């Protein structure tokens, strides 16, 4: 391309990023759920006619964004663009086709220009409730975990699919919130479609295919060029951590750098087998976080799209905990999935040691509460998260109480107290929980609460690293493990717990590992 073409491409690329980011902002403004509105637990992206992700918003989580990228082609195979009509809206929450558990619903909105579908705007968000067991690891198979929505049309020619809407409402505990969040996804997709058509009007484009080909081609080649600069070979990493119930999970990653092809293969052979509780991970979600680890080290400035994801291949044995088979339970898949970057980073430390950080606390601790208010009104809280400390970096300490690698924000306690009958008794950093080192690991935090209820209530807390703290790197000391206490007594369960009205809950999240020997 000429220099002028390059300039035009950069301008149009910036417009696409602004468009999908506006889609994300609209979704956050309209959403009912605090985890979407306040924490940013979402992903939005633009896809071409082939279902290839072209651009993503500047906000969102790796697990959602890269799983959404995988979902695009499943939608296109089921609903070819030439069979769609203006006003159609597509939906699924199939764990194996999208983001790994039922709570994350993906909505795809086709974009039409001159009566022809030219692409799609997609979004994935975590919904307040999906029926079934709720957020937690206690289900025995996927069918106990909630409502399974296959690839379907949520709207057809602008008309709501009344039966599907009714099925969704009758199978969830908070139908107004779920319906409201689905409406927010639909509205945000329409915002994206309007902005894309406006861009086409300004630039005289009939569709985005030529623009998509240029962006994806350049992104792929730039990624391959970055891989070709690495030292060829196969490098190994391993991470061991404990999960709810006390089981120890091992994740092994072999990272092979093929400089001739510009490929990088991540193989999870040797990792733990599927678990009997709902912490299993589908390959989409494993690939999402494995890719995140590579991209964070390789060249963070490259666009994240189908082209840049193509050179990184992720494989895992079927039936392993990172490539589970139907009907394995998956609702708390983040408990293992958010540890996926750890062994990958340990392998990459042998290739690019200056860009890798020590182990962090890993998965966020997720909480969901069900019960009745003092006047007898039933409620189900949205899932909310608390993080531990981030691992130290070579030249900087780890960040305190930071959701890494997911990137979601903590919902403010004031918002949670306004949304349900909860009172927080403590919320502060946990000094000294980060591992010592030349650079110290980030500290975890204390979170204490009780409920303003007259009746017993149900609690799901998905805590990990309550036995094995994060490892340090290059002689750094490990971070302290976490603790989950009820009335001062340690608890380590994967099941939903029945709680008394005056029970006191305290969580102490893990600290991050240190980097380098302490001085």
TrEMBL record:
Highest taxon above the source species: Bacteria
InterPro entries: Hydantoinase_B, Oxoprolinase-like
Domain Hydantoinase B/oxoprolinase, residue spans: 5-518
Protein name, per record: Hydantoinase B/oxoprolinase family protein
Taxonomic lineage from the root: Bacteria, Pseudomonadati, Pseudomonadota, Alphaproteobacteria, Acetobacterales
């Amino acid at each position: 391309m000429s220099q002028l073409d390059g300039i035009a491409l950069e301008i149009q690329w910036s417009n696409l990023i602004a468009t999908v980011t506006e889609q994300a902002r609209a979704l956050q403004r309209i959403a009912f759920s605090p985890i979407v509105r306040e924490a940013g637990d979402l992903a939005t992206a633009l896809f071409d006619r082939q279902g290839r992700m072209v651009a993503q918003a500047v906000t969102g989580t790796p697990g959602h964004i890269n799983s959404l990228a995988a979902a695009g082609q499943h939608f296109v195979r089921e609903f070819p663009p030439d069979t769609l009509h203006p006003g159609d809206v597509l939906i699924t929450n199939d764990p194996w086709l999208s983001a790994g558990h039922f709570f994350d619903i993906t909505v795809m909105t086709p974009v039409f220009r001159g009566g022809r579908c030219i692409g799609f705007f997609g979004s994935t968000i975590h919904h307040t409730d999906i029926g079934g067991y709720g957020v937690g690891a206690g289900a025995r198979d996927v069918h106990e975990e909630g409502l399974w929505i296959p690839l379907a049309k949520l709207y057809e020619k602008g008309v709501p699919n009344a039966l599907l809407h009714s099925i969704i409402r009758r199978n969830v505990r908070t139908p107004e919130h779920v319906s409201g969040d689905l409406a927010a996804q639909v509205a945000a997709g329409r915002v994206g479609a309007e902005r894309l058509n406006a861009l086409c009007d300004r630039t005289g484009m009939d569709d985005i295919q030529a623009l998509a080909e240029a962006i994806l081609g350049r992104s792929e080649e730039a990624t391959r060029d970055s891989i070709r600069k690495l030292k060829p070979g196969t490098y190994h990493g391993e991470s061991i951590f404990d999960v709810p119930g006390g089981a120890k999970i091992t994740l092994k990653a072999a990272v092979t750098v093929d400089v001739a092809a510009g490929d990088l293969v991540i193989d999870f052979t040797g990792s733990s087998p599927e678990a009997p509780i709902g912490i299993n991970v589908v390959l989409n979600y494993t690939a999402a976080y494995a890719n995140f680890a590579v991209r964070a080290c390789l060249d963070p400035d490259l666009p994240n799209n189908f082209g840049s994801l193509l050179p990184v291949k992720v494989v895992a044995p079927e039936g392993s905990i990172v490539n589970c088979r139907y009907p394995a339970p998956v609702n708390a898949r983040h408990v293992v999935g958010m540890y996926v970057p750890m062994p990958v980073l340990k392998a990459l430390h042998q290739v690019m040691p200056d860009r890798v950080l020590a182990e962090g606390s890993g998965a966020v601790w997720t909480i969901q509460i069900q019960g009745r208010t003092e006047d007898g009104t039933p409620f189900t809280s949205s899932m909310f998260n608390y993080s531990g400390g981030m691992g130290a970096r070579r030249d900087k300490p780890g960040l305190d109480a930071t959701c890494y690698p997911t990137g979601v924000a903590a919902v403010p306690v004031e918002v949670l107290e306004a949304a349900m009958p909860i009172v927080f008794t403590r919320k502060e950093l946990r000094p000294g929980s980060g591992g010592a080192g030349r650079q110290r690991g980030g500290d975890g935090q204390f979170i204490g609460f009780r409920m303003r209820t007259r009746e017993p209530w149900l609690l799901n807390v998905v805590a990990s690293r309550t036995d094995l703290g994060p490892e340090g790197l290059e002689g750094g000391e490990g971070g302290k493990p976490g603790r989950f206490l009820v009335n001062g007594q340690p608890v380590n369960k994967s099941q939903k717990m029945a709680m008394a009205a005056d029970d006191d809950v305290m969580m102490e999240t893990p600290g991050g590992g240190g980097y380098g020997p302490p001085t």
